[in-house]
Structures are given as C-alpha cells and as structure tokens.
Amino acid sequence: MLEEYKPGETTRAKRNPNYFRDTWFDNVELLSIIDPTARTNALLSNRLDVMDRCDLKTVKFMEAKPGIKVNKVTGYEHNTFAMIVTSTALRQS
User: Fold this and answer.
1) Helix, strand, coil proportions of the chain in percent (round to 5)?
2) Between 20 and 30 A from 38 (CA), which of 5, 18, 55, 84?
3) pLDDT computed for residue 80 by the predictor
4) What is the pTM of this model?
5) CA-CA distance, 54 to 18, in Å (whole number)?
C-alpha cells in the first residue's frame, strides 16, 4: 500500500495485509538518485540494498567488493510517451 510518493525523490510502500498471495517484503522504499557517483557511494556505504544502472566504469571494482553481487541483464529498455490523441485542440487544419 502506498505510504508516500514524492515524484523524482522517493516512494514508500508497505505490505497490504489483505493481499491474497505471499509477499517478499513488509515495506519498500525506492529512492531516485540520478547521479551515478552518489548512487554507487550509497550502495558501497550500505545505505542501499539494491541499485540499478551501474556505471560501466566501476562495475569491475564493484564485482571485487565482498558482499556485492552484480547481475548483468541483457535486454531492451521500453519507454512510453503517453499522449491524448483524441483531442482536437492542437490539430492543424
């Protein structure tokens, strides 16, 4: 269940006690850390449990650190751009 949402900063959620399946977490906090150096430092100083978008220049260094596991995933990123295409306000004649 959503507890807090600050766009571009943080999202906090807790487990729904009425959810009908097993859950993996009681609560989750997602932080938006745009700067790759700040994100890496937060992981290395144990302020983060998981990080995505590792800086490719530091991956080898991070793989050598005890307690850090780097998962390499090959895939395609999917971006969407939501638009209201039924509006006539911006249509040209």
Assistant:
1) 15, 15, 70
2) 5
3) 76
4) 0.64
5) 36
What residues have CB less than 8 Å from 51, skipping those under 6 apart?
39, 40, 42, 43
5 is written with which tokens?
A: 């949402």
State the Rg of the chain over Cα: 19
* Amino acid in position 93: S
Q: Residue 18 corresponds to which tokens in the numbers above?
A: 């009425």
| DSSP H or E segment with residue 41 | helix 36-44
Q: How confident is the model at residue 90 (pLDDT cuts 50, 70, 90)?
A: low
Distance CA 15, CA 23 (A): 7
CA dist., res. 39 & res. 50, Å (int): 10
